[in-house]
Amino acid sequence: VVDALQTGNSNELAALFIANIDLTVKETADVYSKAQAEQILRKFFNDHPPAGMVIEHSGVSKSGDKYYIGILRTSNGYFRTTFFLKRVGEVFQVKQLRIESSKNDF
Q: Which residues have CB under 8 Å from 41's CB, separation 6+?
């Protein structure tokens, strides 16, 4: 997930999503299909080409989901990025992704 975010690869990222993902990108938030989410992320990455990402915190929720909080550095600023991974069979898939404006620095 981090590699796809760092490189701005919306297609690779969407391949890791559950069927309907809870997606927040800046002020837009809703539950989207993989295809819709991929289009939203492609536009975001085109407007804000990634330059790197640092994970600041990670853990496991009470329900067993993994979560990661980091800062995505782009050519147009920094974005607080949070994602939750849910176990689906033998793999973890992204069930929620939030990319929100941030004033943080690396």
A: 10, 13, 14, 23, 25
Residues constituting the chain: 106
Share of the chain above pLDDT 90, in %: 87
Q: Whole-angstrom Cα distance, residue 86 to residue 94?
A: 6
Q: Which residues contact 7 (CB under 8 A, 6 or more apart)?
A: 50
pTM recorded for the entire structure: 0.92
> Which stretch of DSSP H or E encloses residue 92?
strand 91-102
pLDDT for res 71: 95
What one-character-per-residue DSSP string does 35-51 give?
Answer: HHHHHHHHHHHHHS-EE
